[in-house]
């Protein structure tokens, strides 16, 4: 179902947590066979970049905006600070066009400010650390001369505006492709750090259409008796968050489950009580 809706190779995406292997869309397919209407972007996915070295679930690396991210050939491929901390679009780019291989590179000022802390500590493995960029490249399995060239080129392109890790600071590069629009601070103070990254699949955006009482509706907008849905089985973001689209609003899926789950539960309990009184 994933490959059919999103496209080739998506079924091979690593999963953010092992339990997701059981989520194969069976409930959605059965509801569709019963005539349920669908909503949301079936061709859209939510993905995250994680530490490629660990098997820990949800080992997300948030702070790519404070360094540079390179591919397996040590080349930058994305404006790391286009979106503050959010990882979804760079995750899609790494999977789609970079063979799902990327590396975050940063230095001591970034580490001192954010470690320990949630920005880099969701993983259970410390970043690779080295006194020089060349030695860091070796630790990451990259070509030292190529990574040194990329870092030197990046450092030379950074403007001299103050570095602000909270706001979009306009501390940008000049003459690079891709440009880094904010938080372009030179990577110059040892020790240097690196995380190998890969993209993982979190959830998809297609699902079932419901009314405000979480009743699944048919294609003719008539409620299907006894069928309810809430949270991720329902469709999400029919315009935003497609493969080349906008940003996923954080926590939206959890909030949908928290908001509509109790509504569905109450409706189902009421229906069961009504059936029981007729027996």
Automatic annotation (TrEMBL):
Keywords recorded for this protein, A-Z: FAD, Flavoprotein, Oxidoreductase
Domain FAD-dependent oxidoreductase 2 FAD-binding: residue ranges: 16-234
Membrane-spanning parts: none
Domain of life according to the entry: Eukaryota
Recorded coiled-coil stretches: none
Name of the protein in question: FAD-dependent oxidoreductase 2 FAD-binding domain-containing protein
Organism name: Cladophialophora psammophila CBS 110553
Keyword Transferase attached: no
Gene3D superfamilies cross-referenced by the UniProt entry: FAD/NAD(P)-binding domain (3.50.50.60), Succinate dehydrogenase/fumarate reductase flavoprotein, catalytic domain (3.90.700.10)
Cofactor: FAD
Pfam families: FAD_binding_2
GO molecular function terms noted in the UniProt entry: oxidoreductase activity
């Amino acid at each position: 179902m994933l490959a059919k809706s999103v496209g080739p190779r998506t079924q091979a995406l690593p999963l953010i947590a092992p339990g997701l292997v059981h989520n194969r869309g069976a409930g959605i397919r059965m509801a569709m066979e019963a005539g349920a209407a669908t909503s949301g972007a079936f061709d859209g996915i939510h993905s995250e970049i994680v530490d490629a070295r660990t098997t820990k679930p949800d080992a997300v690396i948030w702070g790519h905006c404070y360094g540079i991210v390179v591919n397996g050939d040590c080349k930058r491929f994305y404006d790391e600070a286009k979106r503050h901390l959010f990882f979804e679009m760079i995750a899609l780019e790494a999977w789609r066009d970079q063979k799902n291989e990327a590396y975050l590179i940063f230095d001591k000022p970034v580490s001192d400010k954010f470690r320990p802390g949630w920005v880099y500590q969701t993983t259970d493995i410390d970043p690779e650390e080295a006194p020089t960029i060349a030695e860091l490249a070796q630790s990451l399995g990259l070509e030292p001369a190529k990574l040194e060239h990329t870092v030197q080129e990046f450092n030379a392109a950074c403007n001299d505006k103050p570095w602000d890790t909270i706001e979009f600071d306009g501390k940008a590069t000049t003459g690079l492709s891709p440009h880094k629009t904010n938080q372009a601070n030179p990577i110059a103070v040892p020790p240097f750090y690196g995380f190998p990254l890969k993209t993982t699949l979190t959830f998809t955006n297609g699902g079932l259409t419901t009314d405000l009482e979480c009743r699944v509706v048919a294609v003719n907008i008539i409620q299907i008796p006894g069928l309810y849905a809430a949270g991720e089985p329902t469709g999400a973001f029919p315009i935003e968050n497609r493969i080349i689209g906008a940003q996923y609003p954080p926590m939206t899926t959890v909030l949908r489950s928290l908001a509509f789950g109790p509504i569905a539960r109450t409706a189902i309990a009421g229906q069961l009580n009504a059936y029981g009184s007729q027996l």
